[in-house]
């Protein structure tokens, strides 16, 4: 089997390092029975690739990087609205039955790419295995996903959930795989340059990512002499008065590993959006930051209140926790150190290999 690599990719994904740097699309050429064996081994990763900062997009790219080290893998855009930035920067193939650019068997892994009544599944080869990485809380979408294989005569869908929290909410069967994160990108911060106590967060810049009760909380922090730094917060400009210690930055302004070390505490609560996992929370923990998070999200399975982070139910509880952290640098250091240890175990080489073996078997 001959493998050819395209010219190395060495670009930055809108404020995040390219997880595929140095890698290209693999082109496999083989004759006789080798071609059939190669097709059976191939792992096809499908995603909508619509949002350069979406959790499922980042998960797909990181999974490709990890799987590509020991297996043949390929990226497919399962949406006609894939972001141009992603299509230009990564070896993503648009599915095109008309030009016969389609997957031809092997293992199909759909990551956050719902069927949505698409016609193209009827025009591609039957997979050896079908894996669906379910990333939402919508049972109707899950039901559609699991019924489609029966219509096609495909193998039954094997479900992956991103957290035990999500699995409990959906009351469904499947395995739990935390979204892979390269924690080597994040260095625990020992000391921060002088300045005010800084609370901040990072997320996509959409209204559903922000809770209405956080506006008065931010204002109270500013009034008390603290600084507030929010990346992905430009939509809050009409809800918060300008302040010299308030920064509302656009999404992608800085890479996560550059932005997070500028904080003393990572604070996180969303609005109508419920985090099935909360990738940004674990990135903050990888930086050795104490995290203060609302107690409803996939990250709750890994945060032990008062030990490696903090969970709150009400705004009053959040204010009290932040006040304690502001007054006690030693507490911040101790909890941040435990947070880093938590992600080192969660994303250890042994844990990652066990999860990757699921796809390769």
What characteristics describe this protein?
single chain, 361 residues, alpha/beta, disordered N terminus
Please describe what this structure looks like.
- A 7-stranded parallel β-sheet has the order 7-6-5-8-9-10-11, sandwiched between helices. A 6-stranded parallel β-sheet has the order 14-13-12-15-16-17, sandwiched between helices. A two-stranded antiparallel sheet has the order 1-4.
- The N terminus is likely disordered.
- With 361 residues, it is of the alpha/beta class.
- The protein is elongated and about 70 Å long.
Order of helices and strands: EEEEHEHEHEEEHEHEEHEEHEHEEHHH
What proportion of the residues form beta strands (DSSP E)?
15-25%
Shape: elongated
Q: What do the pLDDT scores average to?
A: 86
| Secondary structure: helix percent | 25-40%
| Rg result | 22 Å
Please work out how many helical segments DSSP would assign: 11
The major sheet is characterized as: 7 strands, parallel
Spatial strand sequence of the major β-sheet = 7-6-5-8-9-10-11
Tally of strands: 17
Give the secondary structure arrangement, pairings included.
Layout: E1 2-5, E2 12-13, E3 16-17, E4 26-29, H1 33-41, E5 43-47, H2 55-67, E6 73-77, H3 84-89, E7 92-94, E8 107-111, E9 129-134, H4 139-152, E10 158-161, H5 164-170, E11 175-176, E12 198-202, H6 214-223, E13 227-231, E14 246-249, H7 256-259, E15 265-268, H8 279-286, E16 291-294, E17 310-312, H9 315-327, H10 329-346, H11 349-360
Parallel strand pairs: 5-6, 5-8, 6-7, 8-9, 9-10, 10-11, 12-13, 12-15, 13-14, 15-16, 16-17
Antiparallel strand pairs: 1-4, 2-3
């Amino acid at each position: 089997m001959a493998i050819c690599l395209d010219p190395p990719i060495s670009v930055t994904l809108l404020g995040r390092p390219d997880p595929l740097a140095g890698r290209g699309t693999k082109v496999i050429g083989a004759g006789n029975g080798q071609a059939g064996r190669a097709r059976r081994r191939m792992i096809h990763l499908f995603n909508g690739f619509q949002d350069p900062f979406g959790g499922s997009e980042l998960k797909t790219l990181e999974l490709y990087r990890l799987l590509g080290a020991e297996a043949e893998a390929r990226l497919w855009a399962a949406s006609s609205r894939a972001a141009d930035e992603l299509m230009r920067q990564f070896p993503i193939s648009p599915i095109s039955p008309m030009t016969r650019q389609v997957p031809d068997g092997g293992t199909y892994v759909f990551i956050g790419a719902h069927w949505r009544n698409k016609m193209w599944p009827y025009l591609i080869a039957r997979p050896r295995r079908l894996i669906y990485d379910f990333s939402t809380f919508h049972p109707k979408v899950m039901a559609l996903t699991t019924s489609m294989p029966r219509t096609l005569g495909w193998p039954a869908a094997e479900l992956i959930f991103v957290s035990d929290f999500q699995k409990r909410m959906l009351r469904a069967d499947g395995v739990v795989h935390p979204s892979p994160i390269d924690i080597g990108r994040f260095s625990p911060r020992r000391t921060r340059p002088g300045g005010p106590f800084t609370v901040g967060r990072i997320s996509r810049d959409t209204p559903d990512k922000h809770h209405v009760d956080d506006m008065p909380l931010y204002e109270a922090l500013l009034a008390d002499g603290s600084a507030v730094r929010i990346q992905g917060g430009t939509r809050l400009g009409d809800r918060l008065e300008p302040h010299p210690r308030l920064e509302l930055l656009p999404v992608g302004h800085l890479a996560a590993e550059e932005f997070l070390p500028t904080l003393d505490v990572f604070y996180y609560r969303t609005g109508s959006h419920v985090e099935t996992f909360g990738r940004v929370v674990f990135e903050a923990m990888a930086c050795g930051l104490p995290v203060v998070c609302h107690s409803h999200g996939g990250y709750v399975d890994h945060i032990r209140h008062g030990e490696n982070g903090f969970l709150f139910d009400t705004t009053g509880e959040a204010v009290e926790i932040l006040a304690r952290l502001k007054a006690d640098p030693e507490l911040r250091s101790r909890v941040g150190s435990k947070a880093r240890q938590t992600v080192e175990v969660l994303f250890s080489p042994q844990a990652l290999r066990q999860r990757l073996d699921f796809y390769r078997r």
